[in-house]
Amino acid sequence: MINIGVFVGSLSQNSYSQKIASYLMNKNKIAKFFQINYDILPLYNPDLEKNPPLEWQVIRSVVDKMDALLIVTQEYNFSIPGGLKNAIDVLSVPSPQPHIYQKPALVITDSSGARGGANANAHIQQLLRYIGMNVMNKFVTIGNVQGIFDDNNLTDKKIAKRLNNLVNEFIQFTETSKRS
């Protein structure tokens, strides 16, 4: 069984991104999902690499144990949420080896607008490819996200089916990546 680390872009426990991530983590039983919290990470500063903060060491060691990473996020100010960008910066440094280099990744974005966080999705995929991650070639956005939930339950059957199929594809992508 593969281990998938999950990063949620919003730090709010009530965000739609959190609801999507929770749905995916609870619905799928053919992989183990681990939500990776990054809200207490100190801002990345290369001067601290000689003696990295404990929080950096912990998140790096957790991510090292993951076979793949799933990022579920909303768009902030036309781009990536700052906390998520900081976590990616902390993980992108080879200390002593790259922590996310060639690791499979999937990006899912959402928003209350029709475009579903398309700008954030494009920015994150570009960033992850630049730092050497093996990003699954899917552009997944969920627009008008407020309309697919009833409280915490995903009620839109079309979106649910799309997400379930997507995660199955990502698991196959990860397994193929591990063999090559």
TrEMBL record:
The protein, known as: NAD(P)H-dependent oxidoreductase
CC per GO annotation: cytosol
UniProt xrefs under Gene3D superfamilies: 3.40.50.360
InterPro entries named in the record: Flavoprotein-like_sf, FMN_Rdtase-like_dom, NAD(P)H-dep_reductase
Alphabetical list of Pfam families matching this protein: FMN_red (PF03358)
Source species, domain of life: Bacteria
NADPH-dependent FMN reductase-like domain sequence ranges: 3-145
